[in-house]
Amino acid sequence: MVVKAGEKSKANVFESYIAGLFQSYLQGPTSDSTMSEDMKPVIRTEGQAYDHVAQWLVPLFDPMARFIQQSLYDEQHRLSASGAGQGEEEEIDVQKASGASALLNQHCIGVLGTGLPLYEHENAEGMLWRTKCTATLSGGEEV
Question: For the chain, first and last CA: distance in Å?
Fold first, then answer.
């Protein structure tokens, strides 16, 4: 029931499977399953276990990662080209906002103690998007 209720159940199961393969290779069988008493077990390192799992994991995810990376690069290039008419001050503001949601979350939870801000996402023209963030201050004021 706990696994079914999770938001990322399939991802968690797949991650566990990968960890199981890693551990089973690391602690797995010796060089000869019918080992005589004078033979010593094969000692495997974490690096060898990583290489073993990476033999099938990298080919599985490499095309997807390349596609995502290229898509992000194309979108960044498109946004940079469309923002060429922006003033220099607006570009600086955009650069300052990079990573701001994580910092805002940390500040609201750790410093203000108000919990996570509310994020509302909406689609704008074309492939652009807009996010509205509402944080509730300790006095109940929403900003």
Answer: 38
**H or E stretch at 129:** strand 129-134
Nearest to 120 by CA among 129, 112, 107, 109: 129
Which residue has 């979350």 as its token pair? 105
Structure tokens at 112: 């203000």
* Model pLDDT for residues 117-131, shown as the tens digit of each residue: 888 877 766 656 777
3-state secondary structure of 126: coil
- CB of 134 closer than 8 Å to CB of 142: yes
Q: CA 103 to CA 126: how far, in whole Å? A: 29
| Model-wide pTM > 0.85 | no
DSSP structure class, residue 142: B
Q: Which residues contact 21 (CB under 8 A, 6 or more apart)?
A: 52, 53
